[in-house]
């Protein structure tokens, strides 16, 4: 079997074990058994448990960022870009729950260098969301009217809300990716004031409606 294929199998197994058990509780024996290889082979390919966990973080982070970037089609109007990006985010985190658990929980509590890696991922997503907000301001007003600090704050708030909502949605099978994306879209785009007045954003129409 080609090395790349074998290594991918090991990473698949590691994501499942790390995602369900966390970094410290995961066993290299379990990972090797699930991958169908010997433990020495895992060490030969990926050097150490720390290196293996870092490889899992990088792979899952890259997959998540790619999914969001592909989903948020830049040819769409600003609200549709945001909607498509949110839907891609919630779809990916729902379909890759072990990977999301690694990024959202386990990497943040595993210490350095894991925290640094997941922080870099978050910064990349925040930067992308910042671009979407600037596009929305330009589309609405002709020029970006929002101050840089305000845009940065909005991007941080939106990403933080998406992270929390994904963690919650993944504990409840009744919450679909579309429902999660719609919930956040209504808060982010329609705003609480409009929601209280019964006006909501809908994926079927860009305008707010009762």
What does this structure look like?
- With 210 residues, the protein is mainly alpha-helical.
- It has one domain: Tetracycline Repressor, domain 2 (Orthogonal Bundle), CATH 1.10.357.
- The chain is 76% helix and 4% strand.
- It contains 9 helices and 2 strands, in the order αααααααααββ.
- A two-stranded antiparallel ribbon has the order 1-2.
- β1 (200-202) and β2 (205-209) form a beta hairpin.
- α1 (3-21) packs across α2 and α4 (49-71) runs antiparallel to α5 (78-95).
- It is elongated.
- The relative contact order is 0.11.
- The mean pLDDT is 86.
Round the mean pLDDT to the nearest integer and report it: 86
Helical segment count: 9
Annotated CATH topology:
Tetracycline Repressor, domain 2
CATH architectural label? Orthogonal Bundle
Say what oligomer this is: single chain
Within the largest sheet, what's the order of strands?
1-2
Query: What is the H/E order?
Result: HHHHHHHHHEE
Portion of residues in beta strands equals: under 5%
Helix content: over 70%
The major beta sheet can be summarized as:
2 strands, antiparallel
What is the strand tally? 2
CATH class: Mainly Alpha
State the CATH superfamily name.
Tetracycline Repressor, domain 2
Q: Give the CA-CA distance, first to last residue.
A: 58 Å
Key words describing this protein structure:
9 helices; mainly alpha; Tetracycline Repressor, domain 2; 210 residues; two-stranded antiparallel ribbon; 76% helix
Which helices and strands, and how do they pair?
Elements: H1 3-21, H2 28-35, H3 39-46, H4 49-71, H5 78-95, H6 97-109, H7 114-141, H8 148-169, H9 177-196, E1 200-202, E2 205-209
Antiparallel strand pairs: 1-2
Helix pairs in contact: 1-2, 1-4, 1-6, 4-5, 4-6, 4-7, 5-7, 5-9, 6-7, 7-8, 8-9
């Amino acid at each position: 079997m080609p090395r790349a294929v074998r290594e991918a199998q090991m990473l698949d197994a590691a994501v499942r074990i790390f995602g369900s058990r966390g970094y410290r509780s995961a066993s290299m024996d379990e990972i090797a058994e699930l991958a169908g290889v010997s433990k020495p082979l895992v060490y030969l390919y990926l050097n150490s448990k720390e290196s293996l966990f870092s490889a899992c973080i990088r792979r899952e982070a890259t997959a998540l960022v790619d999914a969001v970037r592909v989903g948020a089609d830049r040819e769409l109007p600003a609200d549709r870009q945001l909607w498509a990006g949110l839907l891609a985010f919630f779809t990916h985190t729902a379909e890759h729950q072990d990977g999301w658990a690694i990024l959202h929980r386990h990497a943040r509590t595993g210490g350095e260098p894991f925290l640094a890696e997941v922080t870099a991922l978050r910064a990349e997503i925040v930067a992308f969301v910042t671009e979407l907000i600037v596009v929305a301001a330009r589309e609405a007003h002709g020029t970006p009217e929002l101050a840089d600090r305000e845009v940065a704050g909005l991007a941080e708030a939106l990403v933080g809300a998406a992270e929390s909502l994904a963690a919650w949605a993944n504990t409840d099978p009744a919450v679909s990716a579309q429902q999660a994306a719609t919930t956040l879209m209504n808060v982010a785009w329609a705003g609480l004031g409009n929601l209280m007045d019964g006006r909501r954003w809908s994926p079927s129409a860009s305008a707010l409606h009762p």
